[in-house]
């Protein structure tokens, strides 16, 4: 089995190189050939195959390229639609609402145009009456919590909603600066962490100084994360959840969530879980190139591998939880 992993050619070094290294190591461990390819090296006419692969791990947000690869008949993990809906936070909450998945109350800002901006601010007063203060202001496109801000009054709100970029407005849920990240792979919650914001900060992202601790999700939390992944049609994703007074709600769904921190925190090899899911899915649906197809026993082998991986994940989750309980006992 041979695949390709598409990464962005203009973001390199440090944390941007880690997913490719982790996924490549996981692929080797499962006997899968995985070539890492930059998006800027795949310039080809739309609908024509620029690479030879049984599947593509698409670890980028170049949705146009993703759609072109799908038009050429390649199976992407995740799909172009999933990446597009996860990348745009307004589309994320639309997908969650259509599926009936509990999420934060969200108001998309009206569409404006480049160079025009928000010349009429009346919609902000409508949002204030609906959501109140404090209010979360987010760019629709952004990562690592860096485009997420908090408005405490009308003056701050008007100062934040400027320019012409797409934005959403959300209710603020008091959670003590904590949230959950649950990694879902192939319809299963495989790992979870609790994130805590640094003092004076409401965003719990590790990039912004937050801390991360292993977490044993409740059944309700796991089911919510899986439901969110299904709503976005994600093969794998990181689901961010807040624990509000009325129960857990989804904040965001990340189609290519950063793996290093949650893997090191929990001891669970998420990259291998993803690659095993891909191997099983590609083999099950007969997507292998005939030259590389293993024969009639392939599905049975894949099923055994998937079951073995589930057992391994379960053992690692239990071990992580035991370490967490021992740590709490010593505190």
What this model shows, in words?
Helix content is 37%, strand content 22%. By secondary structure, it is of the alpha+beta class. It has a five-stranded antiparallel β-sheet. A four-stranded parallel β-sheet has the order 2-1-3-4. The chain has a four-stranded antiparallel β-sheet with strand order 5-8-6-7. β1 (2-7), α1 (18-29) and β2 (33-38) form a beta-alpha-beta unit. α3 (80-87) crosses α4.
For the biggest β-sheet, the strand order reads: 11-10-9-12-13
Task: Write out the CATH superfamily name of the domain at 106-171.
Answer: ATP-grasp fold, A domain
CATH class of the domain at 106-171: Alpha Beta
Q: How many β-strand runs? A: 13
Short description:
The protein is of the alpha+beta class and 331 residues long.
List keywords for this structure.
10 helices; four-stranded parallel beta sheet; 331 residues; Dna Ligase, domain 1; alpha+beta; five-stranded antiparallel beta sheet
């Amino acid at each position: 089995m041979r695949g390709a992993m598409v990464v962005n050619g203009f973001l390199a070094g440090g944390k941007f190189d880690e997913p490719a290294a982790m996924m490549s190591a996981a692929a080797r461990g499962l006997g899968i050939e995985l070539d890492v390819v930059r998006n800027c090296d795949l310039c080809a006419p739309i609908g024509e195959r620029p690479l030879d692969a049984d599947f593509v791990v698409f670890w980028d947000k170049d949705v146009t390229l993703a759609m072109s690869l799908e038009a050429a008949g390649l199976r992407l993990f995740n799909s172009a639609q999933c990446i597009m809906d996860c990348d745009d936070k307004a589309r994320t909450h639309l997908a969650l609402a259509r599926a009936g998945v509990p999420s934060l109350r969200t108001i998309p800002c009206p569409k404006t145009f480049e160079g025009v901006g928000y010349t009429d601010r009346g919609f902000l007063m409508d949002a204030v009456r609906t959501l109140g203060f404090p209010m979360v202001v987010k760019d629709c496109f952004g990562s690592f919590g860096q485009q997420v801000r908090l408005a405490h009054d009308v003056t701050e709100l008007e100062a934040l909603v400027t320019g012409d970029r797409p934005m959403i407005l959300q209710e603020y849920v008091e959670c003590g600066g904590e949230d959950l990240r649950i990694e879902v792979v192939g319809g299963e919650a495989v790992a979870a962490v609790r994130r805590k914001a640094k003092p004076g900060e409401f965003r719990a992202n590790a990039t912004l100084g937050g801390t991360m601790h292993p977490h044993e999700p409740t059944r309700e939390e796991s089911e919510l994360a899986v439901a969110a992944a299904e709503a976005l049609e994600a093969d794998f994703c990181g689901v961010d959840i807040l624990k509000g007074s009325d129960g857990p709600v989804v904040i965001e769904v990340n189609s290519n969530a950063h793996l290093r921190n949650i893997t090191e925190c929990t001891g669970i090899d998420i990259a291998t879980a993803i690659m095993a899911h891909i191997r099983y899915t590609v083999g099950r649906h007969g997507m292998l190139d005939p030259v590389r197809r293993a024969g009639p026993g392939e599905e049975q082998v894949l099923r055994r591998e998937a079951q073995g991986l589930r057992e391994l994940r379960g053992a690692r989750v239990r071990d992580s939880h035991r370490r967490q309980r021992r740590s709490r006992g010593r505190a």
